[in-house]
């Protein structure tokens, strides 16, 4: 497939893959922020993602659901080329961001990751102060020209992540000293500080208690105004609560994707129905 | 020879005890081993332990005290005139010691021995005691073994908690093993301490620790030239510090950078080859490094110094320091590599996820996170450098110069300890005792460094667990 193809061309020209795997999430005429066509991932000999094609729309929350080991995290990590850091991982197919192939030779994964931020399953603040945790991204990308600007960015990011009120007085304390939920919001603030366009979240609430989870979910809903969000989750309730669109993965295949409401009330595929009604997974 | 036979017999008895115990355990329950509390082999071990432990303990105690008991008996049996000098006065402690030595040597026939009739007689008596003692020991040990085995064998029954007892015995044995190291350390410290105290009763600690003149000779006669010794150890400490500093200047950058390369950049294949190779450096005997320093590196510095018009002595601090640094590289690199790989992958991913490059991630996230561990590794390496002896003996020289010039010859604490103790020495002169005081200082310094290093390393560990 021509890697120079624009997203629009991709939508019209891409041969529809078998089954529902290729069904676009967006209707015709709508611009997809991220889209994948015939994406395959191999870990050594293991074929982890099989011919996945989907579109992710701007300013929406897209949820990836599916049983453990179905490849949803793997696919998520393809979207900012995090899989590059794993030696044995190999990605084929076309994945585009704003119509540009992100696996093209001239794309620097480092720059890509500044545009597509990521929040991980386990909160992973750096063993630095809260301030330094957030200032890390802007510093390495040279976003702030002087100290005041940097402080401004740190404050806005904390504010947006809903953490400012809680940590205002202790910005110089280590970020590892916060509670799990606060740490995760710190990580979200850290991601926001680089001004990404897309934020990938890999089960961001799986290590948190229900109250912290509720806060993060609220935050995700607010962040949707400014960012495109992709979230991997094991909790179907969470997917139903926060996402507008849902994609169901099973054994490396994209089984079904569509409006969240439709997936949860009227799933087209037998497997999806089985999974969301709790018959397996 | 007899002792060896005895051990062999005891061992055979133990094996027999084991088989008998196991056999009886099976017999007691009529072959239905499931009725036993413990497996048959535990019953066997139980009997074997009863057989072996008392007899071997007796044997060990005998080994410890036999010679002193025999000596005391011999001493008591000596005719009174043997313990008096020609002047009729009782002999001094040292004289008695000499006499006893003479008797023992005559008894074993080591040397031609004394022709003195008294000594001959005493030697015969001594031999007699030892022979009797050996027979006594054999009889006692064998009967203890048989009795113990019999006792254990008697106790074997279906309800006997043999496993618990055997495991307890094994546990006690392990405790004894682990305390051996501790007691050895305590013993070494005490001997260092007492000899140092003897030294400090002759040379004041202030002079030793703060004096700048080191010339540890002692006059044999009062009118000898240069009879006043100097025991100011500052030049030695300074020399040690200078050489260790040079060594660290070599080892830290090279070790750290190679650790970073191996932990973060090297492909698995390269790593699996380079890491063992680096660790081979640690396996080279230090005396070989010494050759290298004295025969290759030092002349190289002297010759290249001449090129630039510098006079570098052929035993220079820099040659010894550089070679020592090379020796320490594997310490630094291996320990740093461990702590760098111990930094959780989540840190790396978090940094990459923000669009950081590899080098930014290493500089700003990995190294700060690993720093306490790296510092701990470096401190361990420093204590190794301070205690290193062979390289400096061969390459650093003996002159106690107080200088910061790395091109001059300096000497270190360890070198001086070696020279103070080499050769025939009067053991109670300050010159020899100074070695113990130096050893004590060295011990304290490395101990403190190690404690700090371990503390730092432990603190680092807590951060991620």
TrEMBL record, chain A:
UniProt xrefs under InterPro entries: AAA+_ATPase, ABC_transporter-like_ATP-bd, ABC_transporter-like_CS, P-loop_NTPase, PstB-like
CDD domains linked: ABC_PstB_phosphate_transporter
Segments for region (Disordered): 1-30
The UniProt record lists the keyword Ligase: no
A single MF term (Gene Ontology): phosphate transmembrane transporter activity
GO cellular component: membrane
Domain ABC transporter: 34-276
GO biological process assignments: phosphate ion transmembrane transport
Polar residues bias locations: 1-12
Keywords, ordered alphabetically: ATP-binding, Nucleotide-binding, Phosphate transport, Transport
Protein's recorded name: Phosphate ABC transporter ATP-binding protein, PhoT family
Organism listed in the record: Caenispirillum bisanense
Automatic annotation (TrEMBL), chain B:
GO cellular component, one term: plasma membrane
UniProt membrane topology term: Multi-pass membrane protein
GO molecular function: phosphate transmembrane transporter activity
Key words of the record: Cell inner membrane, Cell membrane, Membrane, Phosphate transport, Transmembrane, Transmembrane helix, Transport
Subcellular location as annotated: Cell inner membrane; Cell membrane
Domain ABC transmembrane type-1: start-end pairs: 237-453
Function statement: Part of the binding-protein-dependent transport system for phosphate; probably responsible for the translocation of the substrate across the membrane.
Pfam family, one: DUF3708
Descriptive protein name: Phosphate transport system permease protein
Organism: Caenispirillum bisanense
């Amino acid at each position: 497939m021509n890697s120079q193809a624009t997203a629009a061309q991709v939508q019209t020209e891409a041969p529809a893959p078998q089954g529902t795997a290729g069904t676009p999430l967006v209707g015709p005429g709508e611009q997809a922020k991220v889209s994948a066509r015939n994406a395959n991932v191999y870990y050594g000999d293991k074929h982890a993602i099989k011919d996945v094609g989907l579109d992710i729309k701007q300013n929406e929350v897209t949820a990836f659901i599916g049983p453990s080991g179905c490849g949803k995290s793997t696919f998520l990590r393809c979207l900012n080329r995090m899989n590059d850091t794993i030696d044995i991982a190999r990605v084929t197919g076309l994945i585009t961001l704003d119509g540009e192939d992100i696996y093209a030779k001239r794309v620097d994964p480092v720059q890509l990751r500044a545009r597509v931020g990521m929040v991980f399953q386990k909160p992973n603040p750096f063993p630095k102060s809260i301030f330094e945790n957030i200032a890390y991204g802007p510093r390495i990308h040279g976003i702030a020209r002087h100290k005041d600007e940097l402080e401004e960015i740190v404050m806005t990011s904390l504010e947006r992540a809903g953490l400012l009120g809680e940590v205002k007085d202790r910005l110089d304390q280590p970020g590892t000293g916060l509670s799990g939920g606060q740490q995760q919001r710190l990580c979200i603030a850290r991601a926001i500080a680089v001004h990404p366009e897309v934020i990938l979240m890999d089960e961001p609430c799986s290590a948190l208690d229900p109250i912290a989870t509720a806060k993060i979910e609220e935050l995700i809903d607010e962040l949707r105004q400014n960012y495109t969000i992709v979230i991997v989750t094991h909790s179907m309730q969470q997917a139903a609560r926060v996402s507008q669109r849902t994609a169901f993965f099973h054994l490396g295949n994209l089984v079904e994707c569509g409006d969240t409401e439709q997936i949860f009330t009227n799933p087209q595929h037998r497997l999806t129905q089985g999974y969301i009604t709790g018959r397996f997974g | 020879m007899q002792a060896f036979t005895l051990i062999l017999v005891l061992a055979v008895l133990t094996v027999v005890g084991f088989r008998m115990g196991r056999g009886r355990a099976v017999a007691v329950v009529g072959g239905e081993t499931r009725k036993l509390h413990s497996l048959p082999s535990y019953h066997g071990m139980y009997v074997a332990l009863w057989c072996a432990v008392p007899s071997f303990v007796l044997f060990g105690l005998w080994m410890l005290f036999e010679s002193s008991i025999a000596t005391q008996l011999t001493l008591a049996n000596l005719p009174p005139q043997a313990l008096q000098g020609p002047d009729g006065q009782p002999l001094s402690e040292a004289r008695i010691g000499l006499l006893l030595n003479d008797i023992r040597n005559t008894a074993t026939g080591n040397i031609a021995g004394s022709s003195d009739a008294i000594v001959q007689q005493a030697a015969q008596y001594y031999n007699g005691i030892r022979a009797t003692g050996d027979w006594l020991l054999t009889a006692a040990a064998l009967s203890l073994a048989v009795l113990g085995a019999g006792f254990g064998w008697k106790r074997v029954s279906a309800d006997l908690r043999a496993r618990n007892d055997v495991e307890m015995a094994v546990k006690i044995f392990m405790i004894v093993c682990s305390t051996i190291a501790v007691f050895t350390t305590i013993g070494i410290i005490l001997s260092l301490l007492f000899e140092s105290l003897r030294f400090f009763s002759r040379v004041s600690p202030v002079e030793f620790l703060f004096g700048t003149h080191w010339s540890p000779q002692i006059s044999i006669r009062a009118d000898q030239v240069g009879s006043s010794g100097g025991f100011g150890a500052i030049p030695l400490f300074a020399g040690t510090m200078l050489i260790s500093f040079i060594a660290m200047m070599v080892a830290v950058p090279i070790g750290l950078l190679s650790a970073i390369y191996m932990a973060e950049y090297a492909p698995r294949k390269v790593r699996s080859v380079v890491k063992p190779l680096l660790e081979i450096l640690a396996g080279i005997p230090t005396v070989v490094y010494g050759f290298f320093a004295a025969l290759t590196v030092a002349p190289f510095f002297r010759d290249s110094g001449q090129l630039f018009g510098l006079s570098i002595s052929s035993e220079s601090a820099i040659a010894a320091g550089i070679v020592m640094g090379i020796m320490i590289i594997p310490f630094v690199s291996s320990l740093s590599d461990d702590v760098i790989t111990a930094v959780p992958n989540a840190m790396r991913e978090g940094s990459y996820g923000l669009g950081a490059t590899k080098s930014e991630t290493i500089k700003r996230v990995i190294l700060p996170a690993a720093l306490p561990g790296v510092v701990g590794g470096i401190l361990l390496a420093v204590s190794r450098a301070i205690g290193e002896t062979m390289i400096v003996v061969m390459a650093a020289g003996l002159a106690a110069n107080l200088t910061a010039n790395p091109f001059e010859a300096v000497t270190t604490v360890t070198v001086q300890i070696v020279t103070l103790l080499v050769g025939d020495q009067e053991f109670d002169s300050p010159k020899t005792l100074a070695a113990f005081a130096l050893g004590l200082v060295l011990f304290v310094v490395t101990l403190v460094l190690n404690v700090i290093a371990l503390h730092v390393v432990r603190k680092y560990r807590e951060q991620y667990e």
